[in-house]
Amino acid sequence: MSKAMLIINPASGKGTGERIQADLEMALTASFDEIETRFTQGESDTKYWSREASEKNYEAVVVVGGDGTVNEGISGIAELDTRIKFGFIPLGTANDLGRALGISLNPRKAAKDLTNFKTRKIDIARINNQYFCNVAAIGAIPSAVMETSSEEKSKFGFFAYVRDSMRAVLKNSPYTYKLILDDDKEVEISTKVLVIALTNSVGSFENMVAKASPDDGLLHIMALKDENLLMEIPGLLKELNGGYISEANNMLTYHVKKVVISVMNENAMDVKVNIDGETGPILPVEIEILPSHIEVMVPSEATE
């Protein structure tokens, strides 16, 4: 008898998960004999339950929530030798992995698509002893985003991020980072934002990284040179209307399998990494790609 565990974060999407519970259970019964539904109550519930589902030989785990919930679900099975199928319904602000995989941002449509799914293996990354599936970001802008409250995200959505990011651009000084790329190349970068992405979509912008895909086996590193940063913003906005941000003027890009990042400034204290929208580890960090590590349930008509 095949079993799937359905994990719903009731706080995501203003309670949308609870409203589509019946739709999800009905869709999943097309592929699984038994569906066990759980609602998260505390931090890390999704991570622990996803791991439990794998250890108890469930065939799949499906999580419903924002980018942080998706990260928890993947983190729960990432370190296991045998990893079960992973599905998700994106209910966050950015939903980058959902965008990259062609999963509908309409929750009911995404639920219906689980009636007839296929699987696709995707990369994830290990950062120290944690994992991420979308993006790691460092600097003044990501720090400001980490401080955006849940109430503001719920009320203003993506525009809350834009507002806090612009405040960070105007207020804060850049840090200088040392990057060791693939163990053999060392570079120093002065910037207010350093991004390590796994797909083409970052912060809901689907044209962030040219030629990036969820299974290309690479970390895509981007840093905007700090010189005349405000003068670069019109160019960046232009790129958002058809080009790729990674190809904008004054954008440094690297495509690697591994990177070690540390901060050079003597006055830098506890520079944190934002991973998949949540607070992550403090620099220095080592980030390594884990190619085709997770088998994800995607719509049968989703393009690769």
TrEMBL record:
Annotated GO MF terms: ATP binding; ATP-dependent diacylglycerol kinase activity; metal ion binding
Keyword Lipid metabolism: yes
GO biological process terms on file: phospholipid biosynthetic process
DAGKc domain boundaries: 1-131
Pfam families from the UniProt entry: DAGK_cat, YegS_C
InterPro entries per record: ATP-NAD_kinase_N, Diacylglycerol/lipid_kinase, Diacylglycerol_kinase_cat_dom, Lipid_Phosphate_FormReg, NAD/diacylglycerol_kinase_sf, YegS/DAGK_C
Keywords on record: ATP-binding, Kinase, Lipid biosynthesis, Lipid metabolism, Magnesium, Metal-binding, Nucleotide-binding, Phospholipid biosynthesis, Phospholipid metabolism, Transferase
Keyword ATP-binding in record: yes
Cofactor: Mg(2+)
Domain of life of the source: Bacteria
GO cellular component: plasma membrane
Record-stated family: Belongs to the diacylglycerol/lipid kinase family.
Protein name: Diacylglycerol kinase
Species this chain originates from: Aerococcus viridans
